[in-house]
């Protein structure tokens, strides 16, 4: 069985508060991308994980118990009360540590695939209960498409596709420097900017691409730039190349920008070639998790 593990971006990300336990509460709109990892699962006598790569570094991707695929596997075994020996073969296409939720997408694919492979009969809500302790991005990976996330980003409301944005190509710039999520939130705590205040609600009420693009914002972008200042230069270069709504995804370090309707993607990529960082193109995708298995 092969399960798709799509990358995600946050079209909006507002930090709405900090709880006494130190957890940050969020209001965010998640969106899946066509860029994806893939996870092959086969029943086996013991559980193993192999990592393959297609065009990205796997230096930060381990095959031991720290990998979210194996953490998801352990969590599901505890939830169902039995052993699920599986051979996992993970093909990475999503850069690690870039704010695109690659590891979380892989974990969600593992939960979904194991449920099918071992005929556990768990529904989406039951799988979400297993996923939530693993992180909000894992929960989103079990919903897919587009979703509105609140609390820690793990309370999810599936959304109808924002069709004007589905028609636009996206450029992703990978600086190759991971932004540790706890550090970025720590930096946000020092300034507590709210550039994204109310953006999710306004985005979901917008009707045109122009209105939607004007509302894309991320409260974590400023602390990500403070952590890795060259991100500002990359953002300026992307804007000068004509990309719209250029923004950091999640806690960084990946930046995304939308190609204008009359834009020339080859020209844009040529303009960005001097940056010396990874550049790729993709689109938003509208299918959801329970539609992706082969």
Radius of gyration: 18 Å
Provide the succession of SSEs.
EEEHEHHHEEHEHHHEHHEEHE
Give the CATH topology of the largest domain. Answer: Ribosomal Protein S5, domain 2
Q: How many beta-strand runs?
A: 11
Corresponding CATH architecture of the largest domain = 2-Layer Sandwich
Specify the structural class: alpha+beta
Shape: globular
Sheet with the most strands, sense and barrel status:
7 strands, mixed
Number of helices: 11
> Under the CATH scheme, which class of the largest domain?
Alpha Beta
Helix content: 25-40%
What is the mean pLDDT?
Answer: 94
Q: Low-confidence parts, pLDDT < 50 over ≥5 residues?
A: none
What fraction of residues sit in β-strands?
A: 25-35%
The rounded distance between the terminal residues' Cα atoms is: 6 Å
| Total domain count | 2
Question: What's the topology here?
Answer:
Elements: E1 2-18, E2 24-43, E3 48-53, H1 68-80, E4 86-92, H2 102-117, H3 124-131, H4 136-141, E5 146-150, E6 155-159, H5 163-166, E7 170-174, H6 181-191, H7 199-205, H8 209-214, E8 217-218, H9 221-227, H10 230-240, E9 244-248, E10 255-258, H11 265-272, E11 278-282
Parallel strand pairs: 1-8, 3-4
Antiparallel strand pairs: 1-2, 2-4, 2-5, 5-6, 7-10, 7-11, 9-10
Helix pairs in contact: 1-2, 6-9
């Amino acid at each position: 069985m092969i399960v798709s593990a799509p990358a995600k971006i946050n079209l909006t990300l507002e930090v709405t508060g900090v709880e006494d336990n130190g957890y940050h509460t969020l209001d965010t709109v998640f969106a899946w991308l066509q860029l994806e990892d893939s996870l092959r699962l086969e029943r086996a006598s013991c559980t193993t994980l192999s990592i393959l790569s297609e065009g990205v570094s796997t230096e930060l991707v381990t095959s031991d118990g720290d990998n979210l695929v194996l953490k998801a596997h352990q969590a599901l075994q505890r939830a169902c009360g039995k052993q699920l020996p599986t051979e996992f073969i993970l093909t990475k296409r999503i850069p690690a540590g870039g704010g695109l939720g690659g590891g979380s997408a892989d974990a969600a694919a593992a939960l979904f695939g194991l449920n099918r492979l071992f005929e556990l009969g768990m529904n989406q809500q039951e799988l979400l209960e297993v996923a939530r302790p693993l992180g909000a991005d894992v929960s989103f990976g079990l919903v897919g498409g587009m979703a509105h996330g609140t609390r820690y980003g793990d309370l999810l409301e599936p959304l109808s596709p924002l069709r004007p944005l589905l028609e636009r190509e996206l450029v992703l710039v990978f600086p190759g420097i991971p932004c540790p999520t706890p550090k970025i939130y720590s930096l946000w705590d020092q300034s507590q900017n709210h550039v994204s205040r109310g953006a999710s609600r306004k985005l979901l009420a917008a009707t045109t691409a122009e209105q939607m693009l004007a509302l894309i914002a991320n409260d974590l972008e400023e602390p990500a730039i403070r952590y890795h200042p060259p991100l500002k230069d990359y953002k300026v270069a992307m804007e000068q190349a004509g990309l719209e709504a250029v923004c950091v995804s999640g806690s960084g370090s990946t930046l995304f920008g939308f190609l204008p309707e009359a834009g020339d993607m080859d020209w844009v990529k040529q303009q960005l070639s001097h940056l010396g960082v990874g550049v790729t193109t993709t689109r938003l995708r509208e299918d959801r998790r329970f539609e992706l298995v082969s």
